[in-house]
Design a protein that fits this description.
The chain is of the alpha/beta class. The protein contains 13 helices and 6 strands.
């Protein structure tokens, strides 16, 4: 650590691992260096020393329609394993996970449950909706359905290009209750992220403040020795599934939440999910 340039003062403080899944491939991750810097600022403000390391990620929207989609779900296991490897090689006092998209969020949650040390999440947030000729667009309506209309001869290429330019107007996870936004809401409902994690748009300044607050909050978790499994209890998963049903979230949560629960030593099967679904109204 001295070779890296850390001072004695920094090394006396609690060491917080900061998992940054930034890359130049995913719209939801392109801005994560900014979020990560804010998290590290929060850690330092609260008396800790952040140490950043990376995680890979796949964008399902870009992996769609070719062999790459077969690699997306298995990337979740690689993300969980790689976070475990680094956190076991470097025994951090706490961890801040910074995901945003489909398989990165559950992969990191699995790692947090498996490692069972103080941990908190802050996502990059959702992108804003797109607007073209007073109509709202997102990845599905603009990116997929418009292409289908064009191929069916119902739309000209100029209109398609205009919708393509408008449908994903900012960085962030794709606007809509797809897997990324659903899982970020689930992370919040589980208690592993501060309020607003699932809903504050990626481009809002409030997202930067949330990142700083999350950096400060991990120091409180370390101080009081609140571990991931202390938060991710059976009641927390019941709460998350209930929120999922109320939001009408992505069906992929049925892949992810039971896997996270399993890492936490809990069994959440389809019977429990159906029981929650039967009594929970779909609100929005």
């Amino acid at each position: 650590f001295k070779a890296i340039g850390y001072t004695d003062e920094e090394l006396k403080r609690p060491i917080i691992g900061v998992v940054n899944s930034f890359n130049e491939l995913i719209p939801g991750h392109i801005h994560l260096n900014t979020i990560t810097q804010a998290v590290k600022d929060g850690i330092r403000m609260a008396g800790g020393t952040p140490m950043e390391f990376p995680a890979i990620g796949v964008c399902d929207g870009i992996a769609m329609g070719h062999a790459g989609m077969k690699y997306s779900l298995v990337s979740r296991e690689i993300i969980a394993d790689s976070c475990e490897i680094v956190a076991m090689a470097y025994p951090f006092d706490g961890l801040v996970f910074i995901p945003n998209c489909d398989k990165i969020i559950p992969g990191m949650l699995m790692a947090a449950a498996r490692l069972n040390i103080p941990a908190i999440f802050v996502s990059g947030g959702p992108m804003l909706k797109g607007v073209y000729k007073n109509k709202n667009y997102d990845l599905i309506s603009g990116g997929f359905e418009a292409v289908g209309e064009f191929k069916a001869g119902k739309m000209d290429e100029k209109t398609l290009n205009s919708i393509e330019d408008a449908c994903c107007p900012t960085c962030g996870s794709c606007s809509g209750m797809f897997t990324a936004n659903t899982m970020n809401c689930m992370t919040e409902a589980l208690g592993m992220a501060l309020p607003g994690n699932g809903t504050i748009p990626a481009v809002y300044s409030r997202r930067i403040r949330l990142a700083k607050e999350s950096g400060m909050q991990i120091m409180k978790l370390v101080e009081h020795d609140v571990k991931a499994r202390d938060i991710m209890t059976e009641a927390a998963f019941e709460n998350a599934f209930t929120v999922d049903m109320a939001l009408g979230g992505s069906t992929n949560t049925i892949l992810h939440l039971p896997a996270i629960a399993s890492e936490a030593g809990l069994n959440f099967n389809l019977a429990k999910i159906n029981a929650i679904s039967e009594k929970t109204p779909n609100l929005c």
